[in-house]
Amino acid sequence: MLRLVHVLYGVQPPWSREMPHVPLQWQDLVFGEAVTDSREVEPGTLFIALSGERTDGHTFLPDVIARGALGALVTRAEVEARNAVLAHTPRLWALVNPVTGEGLANTAPGTCLLIAVDDPLMAVQRLAVYHRRQLTPTVVGITGSVGKTSTKEVVAAVLSRRFRTLKSKRSFNSEATLPTSLLRLMPDHEVAVLEMGMWAPGEIRFLASLARPQIGVVTNVGPTHLERLKSIEAIQRAKCELVESLPVGGWAVLNADAPLVMEMADRTLAKIFTYGLTPTATLWADQVVSYGLGGIGMRAHYGGESVAMRLPLIGRHSVYLALAAISVGLIKGMAWDEIIAGLSDPEAQPRLRVLPGVAGTTLLDDAYNAAPIS
To answer: Which pLDDT score is estimated for 372?
Structure first.
């Protein structure tokens, strides 16, 4: 829940924050979701006007206002440069100073509030950090060269069987989209499952500083960013930033069948939980069978227990998705029946969906933006 006063306070640099004066008529204003895509704006939305190489979110402000956004994070210069266009919007808008609250006093409720900040990207990141620190969920961060989104979906499906769980949308794993996931956190959320991607070294460490995960899952390390990082070793170091960011008492969940991932065990203060097909892993599986479109079967071994299961996840490779999710579930104290129920949820199958086609045919939907090795 994003109250206006908290947004105005949270977007300010933390070293110079001042509580703004919010007139009585605005004190109960609560924003809905924060979005960076103007096409996703709905009544109540807080729009983040990001500037990129190809487009500038300020360009879409007339449409954002018309769609019913309650507010937007903008720069004053960009708004003033578009005054002539914005003057023709059918709905009222006002430029607001987040430090003083200037612009609110004589503004009628229902007006779209354009909150003037130094940089909308930095402002939403600051707001996300402020919002995250007001709440106490267990945050699960997930990274890896491939399988991040699929693993996120399956982990969330398992955890949601016991806990009120938030998961990041789609592949929202960047410096711009992860903050919007954090801003969806509510006081009753017990767990947040967040995907963390990277474009350059240091980015995952930065994302971890925003989200403050207590559990970190690393799926694998592969040649997915060689054009920028130049070597597998550099990719490994970048992915390792997640486990290096975990606190004492946290958990690093590592793929035991990936040597470059296992090397990360010596670079964290967190406890180590490993998973894979090797019997030396904390959690391991054997008797893995693929039943084609009928899913997979396997037997999981953990702490002297041995549990057989049949899951709707498609493809033998899905055993790693299941093991990662089981690992996090066990760390959180879940029972086997809860974990298996989560893994059996049809929504846990993030890719290769089996859909009924026309005239009795079967459609396999594996449309996905992913690296070749996935």
So the answer is: 58
Which H or E element spans position 198? Answer: none
- Fold designation for 135-353: UDP-N-acetylmuramoyl-L-alanine:D-glutamate ligase (3.40.1190)
Report how far residue 177's alpha carbon sits from residue 174's, in angstroms, rounded to the nearest whole number: 5
- For residue 145 the two structure tokens come to 């060269």
Sketch the domain layout of the chain as residue ranges: 2-119, 135-353
Question: What is the arithmetic mean of pLDDT over 164-180?
Answer: 89
Structure token pair of residue 327: 């690992």
Q: Residue 24: which residues within 8 A CB-CB, separation 6 or more?
A: none
Of 334, 353, 337, residue with least CA distance to 153: 353
Give me the CATH code for the 2-119 domain, please.
3.40.1390.10
C-beta atoms surrounding 67 within 10 Å? 18
CA atoms 296, 299, 300, 305: torsion sign? positive
Q: At what angle do helices 336-343 and 148-159 cross, to 10 degrees?
A: 130
Q: What percent of the chain clears pLDDT 90, i.e. is strictly above it? A: 70
Is the distance from CB of 262 to CB of 256 less than 8 angstroms?
yes
Q: Are strands 353-356 and 362-365 parallel, antiparallel or unpaired?
A: antiparallel
What tokens were used for 234? Answer: 């550099």
351, pLDDT greater than 70 = no
Q: Give percent helix, percent strand, percent coil of the chain, each to the nearest 5.
A: 35, 20, 45
Rounded (10°) CA dihedral 230, 233, 236, 241? -90
Q: Which of 257, 239, 25, 13 has the alpha carbon at shortest distance from 123? A: 13
- The yes-or-no verdict on residue 326 having pLDDT over 60 is yes
